[in-house]
Amino acid sequence: MSPLDSPGPQAPHPQPAPPQSQGQPPLGQPPQGQGQPPQGLTAGLFEPAAEPGGPGEHGTPGAPGLPDDGEDGVKRKRRWPRVLAAVLVFVLLVVAGIGGLLWQRQSSYNGNIDRIRGAMPTGKNRPGPNVTGTENWLLVGSDTRADMGTTGDGGQVWKPGRQRSDTIMLLHLPADRSKAYVVSFPRDSWVEIPGYGNQKINAAFSFGGPPLLIDTVEKLTGVRIDHFGAIDFEGFKSMTDALGGVEVDIAQSVYDPARKVNWPAGRQKLDGEKALLFVRQRYNLPNGDFDRIKRQQAFLGALAKKAADGGTISNPLKLDRFLSAFTKSISVDEEVDAGKLRSLAISLRNIRASNVAFITAPNKGSAQRGKQSVVLLDRTKAGALFNAVKTAGMAEYVAKYGGVNRVGTVS
Q: What are the b/e assignments for 6-42, b being 16+ CB within 10 Å?
């Protein structure tokens, strides 16, 4: 059966379910120094790096007024912090823009990031290289309900049969880095999983971890995935709290029967715990999981905006809390080293939250396959979107077809 299928009978409205998922326990120029300051998400982060072995190494404050042994004989005071900064747009990532990776004091924060060995598939039938200069990341939010984080420092990013990828996003970065495009896949998308036949796309992570999920997405889209990033909900919680909360706008009052939470209409400030409740709600939303996707995108946009806010960047304590929480919460493929993150951050220096376009993979809505309620992707429209990613034509695609989600106000 084709992964992009025709619609079946409409699925009955989903009923509240326990937190477990379907029986499974479960986002250039070099850093600028003392000249013109950088713009965008990295504004305010770049400072001259310390000379190796000299004052300020490892970001440690030193005694002021000590003379330097440099050739010019000029006295220089140590500065705190000695920052070598970079930003990786992750949506959440995430992006943010989604998820984004803000990078300060490389030697300290780089050590926090968990690298996943063998995350990338090794088969010979992968899609060919992307257009030169473009980059595609597969970003995943795990729906495990474990008490402790499963991604990041000390976490196990994948436990066979116990985790499904609750949030699946393809982050596409054009060569000029003028924008970022985030394509969300409904977690119930009915697709072919290599070796397992037609299944919901989020089952791929449960069956075979990151390599199988990447293989599934590559065969579905024809787009080669360059890098992988994962974060579980506990990571989102700690990042939100480190920023002092984020704000979202809810269109109308809605009740979540699964978690017994009432969301009043209007502007809401979310701490970490409320953020988890907000992005997890699926039942009682007008469009079910499709509204849930928009909530996740709205949260990632709010997280990126708050992280890039001048009040965060200019406050060393706030910035340190956020960077520590973020870098301790994420897992990436082992090819993403510090140099890669730094180079990518520099290339993304002009991207702002408003330059991130959120899109849901085109689909024909819900259908029934056996006893399962699934989502059928639209063969023609989804094919055009994936081809635009593959050929670096996303700007033209959006101009022709639209499809960008409005996430300023959500259900």
A: eeeeebeeeeeeeeebeebebbeeebbeeeeebebbb
Distance separating alpha carbons of residues 191 and 378, to the nearest angstrom = 11
Residue type at 297? Q
Place of tokens 């300290």: 108
Hey, which bits of 153-214 come out as E strands? 165-173, 180-185, 190-193, 197-200
Dist CA 231 CA 281 (whole Å): 18
Distance CA 389, CA 339 (A): 25
| Mean pLDDT, rounded, for 93-104 | 38
Q: What is the DSSP string of 325-357?
A: HHHHHEEEETT--HHHHHHHHHHTTT--GGGEE
Place of tokens 């930003």: 87
Q: Are 329 and 237 in contact (CB under 8 A)?
A: no
Count CA atoms within 13 Å of residue 234 on its CB side.
15
> pTM of the predicted model, to two decimals?
0.70
